[in-house]
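User: My notes are a mess, but here's the protein and flavin-adenine dinucleotide's SMILES. Can you give me a structure?
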Amino acid sequence: MLHQEFIHKLEDLLGKDRCTFSPEDMVAYSYDANPEKRAQPEGMVSPKNKEEVAEIMKLAYAYDVPVTPRGGGSGYTGGCVPVQGGIVMAMDRFNRILEIDRDNFIVIVEPGVVVQDLQAEVDRIGQMYPPDPASVAFATIGGNIAENAGGIRAAKYGVTKQYVMGLEVVLPTGEIVRTGSKCVKDVAGYNLTELFVGSEGTLGIITKAVLKVVPKPEARRTMTATFSTLEKAAEAVSAIYATGVRPATLEFLDRISLEAVEKAIAFGAKPEEGALLLIEVDGSDHALDAEVEKIQTACEQCGVITFRKAQSDEDREDLWKARRALSFALCEIATEWEDDDISVPIARIPAMIRKLDQIAERHHIIIANFGHYGDGNIHIGMTTGKNGGPFPMKAKQEVVAAVVELEGRIAAEHGIGCVKVENLHWNIDEPTMNLMRRFKTLLDPKGLLNPSKVMPKG
Ligand SMILES: Cc1cc2nc3c(=O)[nH]c(=O)nc-3n(C[C@H](O)[C@H](O)[C@H](O)COP(=O)(O)OP(=O)(O)OC[C@H]3O[C@@H](n4cnc5c(N)ncnc54)[C@H](O)[C@@H]3O)c2cc1C
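Assistant: No problem, the inputs look usable. Here's the predicted complex:
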């Protein structure tokens, strides 16, 4: 239970309108997009500047209160769920774009800015912020940095860490530090920026970010290609890369996903089609037709069944339909899914899918695979079906073992949060885990910032 004195000090600092301790209000801060993880905090604070964040952390340290930072609450791994109670720090008042440095392709933003708002703002001046998770409409820059979020353009543009040039961070003990700069070349000191990117709010609270943007591509072209098997699609991906073309987007759906979407929206899939690639290239308008031609030729050499090119924005929407309808389509197969987010070196995607097929067969379950082919990121949905029995958890462990065997990673873009903590040892050996623990203890000696996330107890 929170100490009354602690509550009064927070109320003095923030005013009663920017903190709440009423149990009814706590429900709104007890969850993220992971359906299984729920935990109510004992209080919520809503600071609006770094000094307030620092004061809150000092108070939390004085009264031994856990603090969990929260952005848009769209994480899939319970990262912002306050599993040890304490207070949630809502970052939604940090919602300003502070500077757009057009000539240097830099923006400086507060962490509560919604990703889509930043994208729209830089789009206006002919620039682009490339990280593009499907949650752009509600996820925040702070949450994206904390999770090192990916998205549909990562095949060409990479993930969030490639765009974070510098950070302002409040450490768990209340010191305010600044890392990085606006400079492309910067080796002045350790690269502390990357220590915080992907640290899931366990090492510090981001209060400002210096981000890189790029010139907005003049045009883009969208295509889909279907194949009889995922192996054939994989051959096509290798052939596409061999042409030197680098698609911005290279998404895939496997047979089960395709069948589900066809059943849900009848978009015209043929029974012999066992895999779909959704491909997008961007760049200067005059060069793109040649790129599309190269992609088409590569697909034809690998036995493409249907190759479709968007001729208009309307066509593009049409081609994206199957990918966008997927989550809803899978609900037609079953309402309960065990989801996973993993990555493997991209040439091993077919091998991973074969292993997943074997797991499905062994445990009499349905496994649907889709995701970002271009960066090796597979989203796996597993279910026993609508009337199936309880899900065999052993299947999940077998997925992890298969990932590791193929030199993959157990978390690709959705983080570890509190749901994958016990599996981290599959990817991180003990000496490395100890180093991570030492970093955590150095920055957060009492272990009060976002406790029970990322690392298992030593
Ligand atoms: C429909 C849907 C689609 C999605 N698509 C994608 C996708 O394509 N790619 C992808 O990578 N992810 C995707 N996600 C997952 C999610 O949107 C991302 O993980 C996102 O980065 C979370 O941002 P958020 O603002 O919602 O953070 P939250 O969920 O609120 O928090 C996530 C983590 O960040 C920490 N945090 C938040 N703000 C700060 C801060 N200022 N300082 C320090 N730590 C902080 C929290 O403590 C927590 O650990 C999707 C989620 C949904 C629901």
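The chain has a mean pLDDT of 96.
User: Great, I'll file this with my notes.
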